Amino acid sequence: MLAFAIHNKKLVATRKPPPKLRPRWALVRVRLAGICNTDIELLRGYHAFRGTPGHEFVGEIAEVRGVSSRERDRWIGRRVAGEINVTCAAYGFRPLCRFCRRGMKTHCARRTVLGIVAHNGAFAEYLALPLENLHAIPDAISDEQAVFVEPLAAACEILEQMKVRRYRQAAVLGDGKLGLLIAQSLHAFGYVVHQFGRHAEKLRISQQAGVQTEFATQLPAAAYNWVVDATGSPEGLRQAVQMVKPRGTVILKSTQHGMVSVDTAPVIVNEITLVGSRCGRFEPALDLLRRGLINVQDMISGCEKLADAPRAFEQAARKGTMKVLLT
């Protein structure tokens, strides 16, 4: 199969057999894969990743191992998206790690992460994941929508963590791909969302969903009980700390290579809570897409063949580009 691997900060084409399957794992033929900021940062050296990147995908199941013939028949040909954290249970490790025993599977001490940590990802013709990681895609959701399930689930995770029903107003800082998904999903769940960004054409996507948008030229100070940093910029955390009220919360969603410096004095003096936020459950994301509440179509900047992945990465890394897909 054709796959692309990161080697010495370059994306290199390789030919190799499809991945071998463990019991209750599936071989997935990738239909579409999305390039996200994390993939671009991996290419720049983030996480010292070696292997095939890519963790946003929709595919169809080509083979499964270690299941009954009846269960196999139910899975083969099914269109799926996949959770990216592979736990010690899926690898057959016993006893389970202390995090898996507590139900914190995304923090499994022995986890691999599709296309990010020790697990070859979706920029290939095939990938392998445990069946427990896979979610069927309803017919009402197109491939172009389904490829956004993983990042949209990460956006929905904010509300799983925050439980902030008494604060109905929130600010989202950043108008990139993840920022747009966060703003739209918070709005869909009934929050009054103010999104700050730098690109009129991007902010227009949130505006059409009912989100209040502003250019991030002069950010308000101490104005919100909670602020989401989705800038992908080293400046984002400092700006979010400036915008949040005393005893407010800043949710960190930006992934970037390198250290981020921040003045901790206002964090301490204003007793601000910093919350890291990563992956989320797929069920809320699938429901939002099925109900047509999230506009992802206008977030697609281009689609390239897998063989043209280096060119697609160049496009995805350009300022102003949104989601570039590989088919």
Distance between the termini: 14 Å
Low-pLDDT stretches are none
Succession of helices and strands = EEEHEHEEHEEEHHEHEHEEHEHEHEHE
Query: What would you call the structural class?
Result: alpha/beta
The count of domains is 2
- Shape-level CATH architecture of the largest domain: Alpha-Beta Complex
Summarize the structure.
The chain has two domains: 2-148 and 296-326, Quinone Oxidoreductase, Chain A, domain 1 (Alpha-Beta Complex), CATH 3.90.180.10; 151-276, NAD(P)-binding Rossmann-like Domain (Rossmann fold, 3-Layer(aba) Sandwich). It has eleven helices and 17 strands. The protein has helices at 37-44, 69-75, 98-101, 143-146, 149-162, 177-188, 200-209, 235-243, 265-269, 282-290, 309-317, and strands at 2-7, 10-15, 25-35, 56-65, 79-82, 85-86, 112-113, 126-130, 134-136, 169-173, 192-197, 212-215, 224-229, 244-252, 273-276, 300-304, 323-326.
Tell me what the structure shows.
- By secondary structure, the protein is an alpha/beta fold.
- It has two domains: 2-148 and 296-326, Medium-chain alcohol dehydrogenases, catalytic domain (Quinone Oxidoreductase, Chain A, domain 1); 151-276, NAD(P)-binding Rossmann-like Domain (Rossmann fold, 3-Layer(aba) Sandwich), CATH 3.40.50.
- Helix content is 28%, strand content 28%.
- It has helices at 37-44, 69-75, 98-101, 143-146, 149-162, 177-188, 200-209, 235-243, 265-269, 282-290, 309-317, and strands spanning 2-7, 10-15, 25-35, 56-65, 79-82, 85-86, 112-113, 126-130, 134-136, 169-173, 192-197, 212-215, 224-229, 244-252, 273-276, 300-304, 323-326.
- The strands form four sheets. Strands 3, 4, 5, 8, 9, 16 and 17 form a seven-stranded mixed β-sheet that branches. Strands 12-11-10-13-14-15 form a six-stranded parallel β-sheet, with helices on both faces. Strands 1-2 form a two-stranded antiparallel sheet.
- The longest helix has 14 residues, at 149-162.
